[in-house]
Amino acid sequence: MLFWSGQSFDEPALQAVGKFKAAQARFAGSGDLDSESLKRWLGKARDIQWDYKNIAKRRGMLERLR
User: Fold this and answer.
1) Alpha-carbon span 61 to 44, nearest angstrom
2) DSSP count for the chain of H helices, then E strands
3) What is the dihedral of CA 22, 3, 12, 43, to 10 degrees?
4) N or C: which end of the chain has fewer CB within 10 A?
5) Nearest-angstrom CA–CA distance, 28 and 48
6) Measured between alpha carbons, how far apart are the two ends of the chain, in Å?
7) Rg of the chain in Å (alpha carbons)
């Protein structure tokens, strides 16, 4: 499961992916998924957003959307 802004979630179960803000959690099967963690991550995915749309204009620098 990949979250574009996942590195900003401050969640040890999510592993950084790439040089921007993406992070992921891997599961062997659906039974490995913790529903409480998923709810928390989805809430953070809604609340923590970065401006990827204008990343080229800013030469690779991301700004957090408020």
Assistant:
1) 21
2) 1, 5
3) 140
4) C
5) 27
6) 24
7) 13
Tokens of 4: 């574009």
Locus of tokens 């953070």: 44
Any bridge partners for residue 49, and if so which? 65
Tokens (6 digits) for 21: 């803000």
SS3 assignment for 15-61: EECCCCCCEECCCCCHHHCCHHHHHHHHHHHHHCEECCCCCCCCCCC
Taking only the tens place, the pLDDT of each residue in 19-38 is 888 999 999 998 999 999 99
